């Protein structure tokens, strides 16, 4: 498969150009671009440049605000409730995570929730901000309903991601960043486009039965929670999705569960709920970083079941992807994605994405 390489700086500026062309405030466009570039850099292409047209459309159709700043509605030394003012998700996310970190520096913990937000990209972007201050970070968001609860047949939960980041020694860290559905919807769509069946345990049909047919999942069925069906512990993923919802929609007084608008249907504002937490390990037992490093080493140094596949810790696959990008000198994109984005750019009258002259086969 041939891919072209684009430098991080070029992707960043292209997204800023496109968002600027529809009137987004420069620092809001920068915040969005940083989150999307980070998504691609970490290998989560489903939450990077690929999604830019969705944000452009949200601003163009005025379903999302391009001006203003989030507002603190209620505050205590350790907590805050924020009104995201229907701004771009990364603008709300950065505001809340910065506030949580500030509080954790002052009182040991900061727990901030927001209503009135929008899609914020990869959850890990926000939890990882806490690592810069040697703190534990957490971030959660609710999303449009795509997941069917165990024993159910209707989608009433989003793919509600969880991210927890914790600093170890010498810049090392644990970064768990995961959806609470077994897989992302995009993976089911991709199999459908290719005419392939899907593995058992990804999604169910309109009757709530697991199915290998992606069409049945996409037309009236839904994704299943992490764990798959009840016999394989799907109810635990279902419970985690509910936990995210209670930290987000319920705690923040945002939309929740099936009341959130349908995925990709922008007939009304999203009013997503999000939650951002920072914890200062200094307020607990000393030696946190050393023990974190030891915990990571215990797993990574295990003898693997298959010698070609070493045991990893959460955050390692993304670290390997970033290293690969550094070695290549940019982020590898499929040519179709670049062409599609350049068509979007052309419609907006901005200069195109310029790939480097390296074409690579992956
Ligand atoms: N904003 C939203 O609405 C939304 C919704 C869903 C997902 N997302 C984002 O999508 C991205 C992808 O989510 P996902 O669930 O598909 O991620 P994933 O399944 O690729 O990875 C999940 C986690 O598992 C870890 N991991 C992967 N392989 C591992 C291994 N062999 N050993 C140990 N750990 C391993 C990863 O480091 C990561 O922390 C995330 O960044 C998430 O925040 C966003």
UniProtKB/TrEMBL annotation:
Keyword match Transmembrane: no
Keyword rRNA-binding: no
Keywords from the named record: Oxidoreductase
Alphabetical list of InterPro entries matching this protein: Mal/L-sulf/L-lact_DH-like_ah, Mal/L-sulf/L-lact_DH-like_NADP, Mal/L-sulfo/L-lacto_DH-like_sf, Malate/L-lactate_DH-like
GO terms for MF: oxidoreductase activity
Family: Belongs to the LDH2/MDH2 oxidoreductase family.
Entry protein name: Uncharacterized oxidoreductase YjmC-like
Organism encoding this protein: Cynoglossus semilaevis
